[in-house]
Amino acid sequence: MAYKLSAELEGHTSDVRGLASFGSDMLVSVSRDNTGRIWKRTGPHAFSEESVLVGHDKYVSSVVVIPDDAYPQGLIATGSMDTTVCVWDAANPGAPVQRLRGHSGNVCALAVSRDGRTLVSGSWDKTAKVWVNGECVHTLREHEHAVWGVLVLDDGSVVTGSADKLIRIWRDGQLVHTLTGHTDCVRALAATSGGFASASNDGSVREWTVDGLVRELHGHTSLVYAVAAANGVLVSGGEDRSMRVWRDGTLQNTVLVPSMSVWAVAVLSNGDIACGTNDGRIRVFTQDDARVADASTQKQFEEKNAVFALSAKAMGDVSLGNLPGPERLKQRGDCDQVVMIKDGSQVTAHQWNVERNEWIQVGHVVDAAAQTQKQVFDGREYDYVFDVDIQEGAPALKLPYNATENPYSAAQRFLERNELSLEYLDTVADFITKNSDGVQLGAQQPHIDPFTGGSRYVPSQSQAGGSVAADPFTGNRYVPAQTTAAYSPPSEYIINRQGNSSAIVKKLAEFNTELA
């Protein structure tokens, strides 16, 4: 049975990077807008924003709900790029009740034991930490790169997944087992009835026991960022704008959303599933007709999907020259099957809707690079492979990018692969945007900067080819055309809660030096 849109939650002004559920009626989301938000169900297909969690001063990357007998609605833990973990009372979240310090990098993963007594955090500082009653009792140090996924098993063992492609199992702070198999970064972990599951940049989801691999699940056509499990269902989300629903190792459903990156997924206790995406929205889907959104909301959702720009690479290894024509749409399909159709110079994607017994358009497929020839990097084709000089006399680093990809995803991969400071994230993403073509079709939403919420710069001309004159670290920066405008100084203080404070202070210091 297909999943249908139940509710669309709007409030965040940037990417939703983490999502957690508590029962059937509460969701908690965290975002690059520096906040967390608590959402409560107000009807069969409606949620409202209950509270905003304001306590971190940088992007909030991870979240988990902690069961606690002393707190009927539970506690909430959030991890941030400010290197701290904040713990909140879900019923009274005006300020954190506790702040855990110890990491030296972004806290990108959180997990809690079933009884709520043990909290585990994973960080870009290559460690995981085990917390009991607010105290760090173990620091797990064997990984060579960022720890993206953490998990606490019922026997108290801790599982960690890392950008070093490894999964490690720990007991009482000691490494007891290392699992191999993924061929790229391990991005997320989730407990299952028989063990646990992992999601990876290699495009696969894998199920494990502590003794080894059980099975591989293939269906995603790009990076897989998130995985969650409950009620016998495994849900994954990734850079192919989809959630995939698995049962007993079989792909049961594919849910497409009009957003490039599905960063986070959750399973509610009533069987509904939810995702957080790079457009700042949370979407809830259901198989229960009683919780399906009204016809107008569903129509708007379908219209957004229909005009969304899809990269051909996000659809898998398909030759655009060998696609069927519109006559293919006269044939029936399988549940949630997606096909590409070529009609003249246009290529569109269509998904089979079993209940309506028809194909529904879910996007325009683009081969979006301005250049006529793809470039290969590390065995994969990309629209652009930029040369980036970070040090005089040193070889240029390669920055691969696909035109319909989230620039921040490409920037983050580049920095992590080359072990560069993530302070450059905004700079690299801005460089990508200015030196590649933006893709926009139909009534699609304007390009939004996922960090500030503002519209990003989309150049009218791009520089194609393998290298460009400017680079994000040492090259020429974009200087807009000079304009003359009237200036009136503000009469009151302006508070910017989303700015990069260190960068602002640095720029003010440079300005003061120039004036001196």
Task: Describe the overall structure.
- Helix content is 9%, strand content 43%.
- It has 516 residues and is mainly beta.
- Helix 2 packs across helix 3.
- The protein starts with a strand and ends with a helix.
Count of individual helical segments: 4
**In percent, how much strand structure appears in the residues?**
35-45%
SSE-based structural type: mainly beta
Broad shape: globular
Roughly how many Å is the radius of gyration? 23 Å
Helix share, percent: under 10%
Number of extended strands: 36
State the end-to-end distance.
69 Å
Unreliable residue stretches: 368-372, 438-487
Report the average pLDDT across residues: 83
Order of strands across the main sheet: 1-28-27-26
Give the biggest sheet: 4 strands, antiparallel
